[in-house]
Amino acid sequence: MSLASWISNFVASITDTFGYVLPLTVLYLLYLIIRYPNRLVGTHSDRAYVWTVPGYPLIGNLVDVARRGTKKQFDHFLYLANSCPPGKPNFSWTVPPVGRIVFLNHPAYIEHIQKTNFNNYVKGDFLKNAFGDFIGTTGIFVTDGEEWKRSRKMASRVFSVGQFRRVVTTVVHEELHSVNGVLDAMTGEAGQGTIALPNLFFRYTLSSFAKMAFGADIQCLKPDPACLQEDVPFATAFDSAQEHINNRFTKPGWQLWEKYTPGGKQMVAWTKVMRDFARKIIDDRLMLLDLKEKARGEEMQDRGIAMGQSEAALNEKSQRAGMAPGDGNDKDLLGLFMDMTRDPEELLDVVLNFIIAGRDTTAQSLSWFFIELFAHPEHVQPILDEIALLFPSSATDTSTPNYLAYDDLRQLPYMQACLAESIRLHPPVPKNSKSALQDDVIVPLNSAGTSTTPPPVKVFKGEMVAWSDWVLARLPTVWGEDCAEYKPSRFLLADESGPGGWRFNSNLGPWKFHAFNGGPRLCLGMTLAYFEAMAVLTLILPKWDVKWAAPHEGQVCLGKRPPPAGRSAEEEQRDGWEWPPNYKSSLTHPCEDYSATFVRR
C-alpha cells in the first residue's frame, strides 16, 4: 500500500469514528500554533522596538514565569533588559490571564504613561483582584479616576507645611526619644550592643505613622530594648501577606489554587489579623467621635458649665487622637476621611493603604542605606561634619540626642544625597504596572535629559505596561556607565553658600529619579520620608559607630558580610560569603534581616 493510500484510509477511519470534529479541531489547533508560535493565544503580534521573550505556542511564557517565581526577580528583569537585541530596547512576554506585558526600559516612557496620557493607563482589574483581600478595592493605591482624585485631594491636606510643623515634627521627636532610649540601654555599660536593625526601623515608622495618620499609639516602640522582643502580630501578617500577594503575579489561576492549598488559608488568617488591627483603630475613633457629638447634643445644653467642662475634656482626648477641634486642616488622615464616610469597610481600606506607604518605604530605605554605608564608610565623616554644623555640640558631646527640626531639613544636603543614592539603587517600590484603556503610541519626550531618546512603542487596548525602577537604576542608558555604583555625588551640586559647600541636586526630576513616582501620582509623602529618615540618622550617627555585626556578635544574616579590603568578589563567593544581602520577595523592597553592632563614640 502506498503512503498516499495509507493516509487516505487513515483519514477515512478517523472521519468514520469521529466525523469531522476531530480533524477540524486538529487543523484549527495547527492553525493556532502557526499563528501564535511563541506567544499566548489571542495576543497581538510582535511590534517594532519591543523584543518578545521567546515562549511556547499558545501558552506564551507561562512555564518560565511560573517556574522562576519571584526569587531574584529584579535580577532576571535586568538580565532581560540587557539581552534586548539592537534596535529593540524594550522586552515583553505573554502570560495568562493578563495577555501581553510590555516592559519599558527608559524614563521617557514612564513620563508618557504617568503624565502625558495619564488617563489612558489605569491599575486595572487584575491588580485590584490580586490586592483586594489585602488592602481592599477602594484605597488610594488601587483606584483610578474620580475615586482616586477624591482620596488624593483629601490626603494631600495632611502633608502640608503647617501639619509638619504642628504634628509631624512632634510625633517624630517622640519616636526618636524611644529609639534613643533603646540604643542607650542596649549599649549600656559595655559601650556597645547588637540589634536587628530593620526590625527597629520598621517599628519606628509604624509607630510614628500610626500616630500621625490615625492618632493611634500602638505601643510597638518604647525606650526599652525589651520592646524589640515583643511580637507585633500586625507587622508579621502584613509582611507575610505582601510576599504572598507578590507570588500571585507568577501563579495564573491563583484564585482556584488558594481555595485548596495551605497558602490560601494562611492568607485568610493574615488578612483577619490586619483587618482586626485596623478595625480597632477605626472603632476607637468612631466611638470618640460619637462621644463628641453627644457632648454637643441637646441633652447637655442645660448643664452649663458642666457641659463646657465635658466638651473640654473630650476635646483634649480628641486632640491626642488627631481629631483637633475647630479648623479641619488640623485633622489627621483618618479624621479627614471620616468627613467623607463613616463606612467601616471603606475606612479599613484607607488605613491599610496608607500603612503600606507610611511604614514600609521609609523603614526599607533606612535598612538599605546602612548596607550601603557599611560598604562605603568613607561617607560617614562628611555626614558627621555636616551634622556638626547644625548641632555644634554633637562633635564633642554625644550624650545629648539631636532632634532634627523640619525647617532644618535642607541644611543636610550631603546626608540627603547619600540617602537618595541609596533609594535610587534600592527603590521602595521597585516595580509597577498599568493597563491600557485604549490603543496608544508611547512617544517619549525625554524630559529626564538622558543621553538618548528611545523610539516610540505601540500599546494595544487591554495590554499591560510595566517598568522597574530597580532595573532603570542599573541601565547605562539612564544613569551612565557607573550606574551600578553607589555615588552620592549624583545628587550634589557645588554651592559656596550651602552647608559644607553643597546643595542637594533636585534638578534630576521625577522621571530619571523615579523612586517617588511622578506626574499626578507623585508621592505625597516624599518630604515625610526624607524627614523621618534624616531625623533618625541625625540622632544615630553622631552617638554611635554602626557596623555590620560579626557572627559572634549575633549576626542573623548568616553567610553575609561586607567584603574586606583587598579581596575580590570571586574570592568572597569562593569562601561562601556574599555581599550585599539580598532583597526579599514582596510588593515593596525589603532586604534580608541583618544585625548591626552599635559602638558608642
UniProtKB/TrEMBL annotation:
Keyword Membrane part of the UniProt annotation: yes
Entry keyword annotation includes Metal-binding: yes
Domain of life of the source: Eukaryota
Residue spans crossing the bilayer: 6-34
Region annotation (Disordered) ranges: 559-581
UniProt KW keywords: Heme, Iron, Membrane, Metal-binding, Monooxygenase, Oxidoreductase, Transmembrane, Transmembrane helix
One of the GO BP terms on file: lipid metabolic process
Entry-linked InterPro entries: Cyt_P450, Cyt_P450_CS, Cyt_P450_E_grp-I, Cyt_P450_sf
Amino-acid positions noted as binding heme in the UniProt annotation, renumbered to this chain: C523
Pfam family, one: p450
Annotated PANTHER family: CYTOCHROME P450
Protein family (similarity comment): Belongs to the cytochrome P450 family.
Protein name: Cytochrome P450
Provenance organism: Pseudomicrostroma glucosiphilum
